[in-house]
Amino acid sequence: MKAFGFLSFGHYGTGRGPGDPDAGAMLRDAVEIAQGADELGVNGAYVRVHHFARQAASPMPLLSAMAARTSRIEVGTGVIDMRYENPLYLAEEAGALDLLSGGRVALGVSRGSPEPALRGWEAFGYTGSTDPRGADLARDKFDTFLRAVAGERLVDADPAQFGPGTRLRVEPHSPGLTDRIWWGAGTRDTAAWAGQVGVNLMSSTLITEATGEAFGDLQREQIDRYREAFAAAGHARVPRVSVSRSVFPVVDGRDAMWLQMGREGRDQIGVIDGFTSTFGRTYVGEPDALIAELRADAAVQAADTLMLTIPSQLGVEPNLRILENVARHVAPALGWVPNTEGPVTGYPTV
After folding, report:
1. What is the pTM of this model?
2. From CA 278, how far away is CA 263, in angstroms rounded?
3. In this predicted model, what pLDDT tens digit does every residue of 112-139 receive, in sequence order?
4. Which residue, of 25, 67, 208, 350, has the fewest CB within 10 Å?
């Protein structure tokens, strides 16, 4: 591990106070958390994207505000659900955000997780999927999105303006943005596919597989398959890999509230979206114990970036305390390099 950031689900409620912000308060808090994290040296500020739910949805306005209030921290998503997206419009927005932020975007996309709405992407106007989960729709759109971000000329120009045979690319184009696109993989097979395509890999706190292996070991196999496929495909650059964990250091009495969150202390098996899945445990404890446990987590050790899921609905101060405790008492022992040292780089595939 070289870097860590926070991942916010953006939960909100009716605005009755701490723990129940309304949508506006959630968005403003997210910007303040990003600003405080940037000052702490934290490497990334990432948001989840869900639709038809009281959670963060359209990410670009929020990420733009984060980028405007920070100077070093990476801003991104984990992940955008491609089933709901117009791939060319998303490429336009991503290009503009990357240019505004000075190349600090880490845009995670995928098929997305289960949504409250039944085939909700159809309500957005995207029909034709033959898969009940819309995976075929997401893959087709991702291919178009990636080509657009790379600057491929996808559309015929008006011959009256440009002459015959001219083709146009999506604008604005941000050179190098393709190197900052991530795929959120839920299985070992999709991780290998992401490696073949040549994008970065995001792996969450759940994997839609259950083999009996510990979550960290199963996720490490996912990462290994990804890197093997990336190298076999002949991609020249060094890719990035991130994993998500819930980590709550207990430094003094102010942190006692987190103890109840780690009562299980082990991975869980359940069913999500029809798949038997493995859910990663929550890490809660004194810093020395957390350091030992995270050093023993094979996936955390293999990834360059650790995303910490945070209870953003509790407000700015508790979340910045979590990040400060990790930065001061845990991350340095795991190899953390603060954002003051420059952009995060990945580990070589060979």
Report:
1. 0.93
2. 17
3. 877 899 999 999 999 999 998 899 999 9
4. 350
